[in-house]
Recover the amino acids of this structure.
């Protein structure tokens, strides 16, 4: 039997994690985050597929693909697009899939322009300020939700 597939989507500049403003985003690299999610996925008996892009259209295209490729749940850090992108919001809404929004930093402790998210009112949950650990928290919640639903 195939494992439930979870798409982990990383938005712009997250490829620079570990080097980029480490006082805000920490020293963990994106490769480290993806690696530890794969290990956790094996433990939780789910499949994780990760994708990062600096381009809005590429992220939208990946969400369109998720409608058809068996994805059951999405974990997304839209990064700066959180605060700007109606197009990415519409794309995630079009998947009709449940998702968790993750931010490494606590966006509510930062500049006012980061306080609004185009995703939070559609999200099952928002995890903001737990650093790289936030992704693991999200994945654990997704796995328990999928386990509870059994469909
Ligand atoms: C971020 C917060 C955003 O405001 C910012 O633009 C990012 C990363 C976070 O993970 O804390 O690029 O989503």
């Amino acid at each position: 039997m195939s494992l439930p597939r979870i798409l982990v989507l990383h938005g712009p500049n997250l490829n620079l994690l570990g080097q980029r403003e480490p006082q805000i985003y920490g020293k963990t690299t994106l490769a480290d985050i993806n690696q530890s999610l794969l290990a956790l996925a094996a433990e939780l008996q789910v499949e994780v597929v990760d994708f990062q892009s600096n381009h809005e259209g590429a992220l939208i295209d990946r969400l369109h693909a998720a409608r058809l490729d068996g994805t059951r749940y999405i974990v997304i850090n839209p990064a700066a697009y959180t605060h700007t992108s109606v197009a990415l919001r519409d794309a995630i809404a079009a998947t009709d899939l449940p998702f968790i929004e993750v931010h490494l930093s606590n966006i509510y402790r930062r500049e006012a322009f980061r306080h609004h998210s185009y995703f939070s009112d559609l999200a099952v949950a928002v995890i903001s300020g737990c650093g790289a650990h936030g992704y693991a928290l999200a994945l654990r919640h997704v796995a328990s939700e999928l386990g509870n639903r059994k469909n």
Q: What stands out?
A: The mean pLDDT is 96. The radius of gyration is 14 Å. Helices lie at 22-25, 30-44, 56-66, 86-95, 133-149. The first helix runs from residue 22 to 25.
